[in-house]
Amino acid sequence: MKRSHLLLLLIPLLLSSACRHHDGESGFLKLKFVPTYDGRVLPMYETVQNPDGFPMKVKRLAFFTEVLNTGATLRDVSNVVALVDFSDLTDKQRAEQGVVKEFSLKPGDYQSLMLGVGVPSGLNSKAPQDFPSSNPLSEEAYYWQAWDSYIFTKTEGALDTLKNGIFDLQFSYHTGIDEMYRIVDLPKNFRVVDGQTTELTIEVDVKEILNGKGGTVDPRKNQNAHSVNNKPIAIVISNNYKTALKVK
Asked: Sign of the CA dihedral 243, 228, 153, 118?
C-alpha cells in the first residue's frame, strides 16, 4: 500500500519533468525576407538604374530556401523548404513588410545563420506530383521537365535600353539542377529561447544577384537562362546569391 501511494505521488513529478523537457526542445526563428536594390527597399516594378546606367524594373524575384542550422525545420513541419516569392510586393509598404517564414530551431546561442538556396538533391529528385498541394514543391511553375529539376530561383524584369521610358528588353533568368544549389553562411549572433520567437531580417539585394562577386549578367547580351546553352549565366546568378543575402 505504501508503495502504491509513493508511486501515485511520483507520477505527477515524472509527467511534469517530461513536459519541461519537451517544451525545451524547440524555439522559433521568424525570418523576414525583404527585396532590396543596392541596400534600399525595392518594390517589384519600381524603376532603378542598373550598373550600366539603364533604367530597369524587376518584376519577379523568387527562390526556394531552408535553414541548415542543426535541428532546424519549417514550423509547418509538413514542408521541408520554403518558397520566398516577392512578386506581390508592388509598393513600398508591402516590400518593407517582406515575406515571412517561420522555422523551429533548437534553443541556444548561434554565431551564424546558414541558409540553403534551392532544393536539396534528395527532394530535387522528386516531381510536383509527389507532393500535396499545400507544399510549395507541388508548384508546376517551378519545375523543369526537360532538366528533371526544380527551378531554384527566378529573376525576371525589363530594361529600358533607349532610356525613353519604354522598357523594351525583357529578361528572365532561372536557375536549377543540383550543382546550382548554394549554401549561404551569414555571420550573426542570435539566441533562440525555449518556446519563444527570435526575429531576423534577411535582405535580398537584386543588384548583387545580377552584378556580384560571382560575375555580372548583362540583359543586353543575355536575356534568358532557361536551357543548357545558358547554363553559365545561371551559375553566375547561383554564385551571386552567396553575397546577395544579408542578415540584419
From this structure: negative
Distance CA 172, CA 177 (A): 17
User: How many domains is the chain partitioned into structurally?
Assistant: 1
How many C-beta atoms surround the C-beta of residue 186 within 10 A? 15
Longest dimension (CA), the chain: 94
CA distances from 74 to 22, 69, 196 (A): 18, 12, 15
Q: Residue 14: inside a domain, yes or no?
A: no
Q: Give the three cell numbers for residue 25.
A: 526542445
pLDDT, mean of each 10-residue run, the chain (248 residues): 37 32 69 96 97 96 92 61 97 98 92 96 96 94 94 98 97 96 96 95 97 94 83 95 96
Phi, psi of 17 (to 5 degrees): -65, -40
The C-alpha atoms of residue 1 and residue 23 are separated, in whole angstroms, by 34
Helix (H, G, I), strand (E, B) or coil at 243: helix
Q: What's the grid cell of residue 148?
A: 528533371
Q: Which position has the grid cell 527585396?
A: 35
- Spatial contact of 153 and 118, defined as CB atoms under 8 Å apart: yes
For 92, the domain range is: 26-247
Where do we find the cell 519541461? 20
Q: Is residue 1 part of a domain?
A: no
The CA-atom distances, in angstroms, between 228 and each of 120, 211, 236 are 20, 21, 14
pTM assigned to the model: 0.87
> Does some domain include residue 3?
no
237: Cα separation from own chain's centroid:
14
- Residue 234 near residue 184 (C-beta atoms within 8 A): no
**The C-alpha cell that represents 28 in the structure block:** 522559433
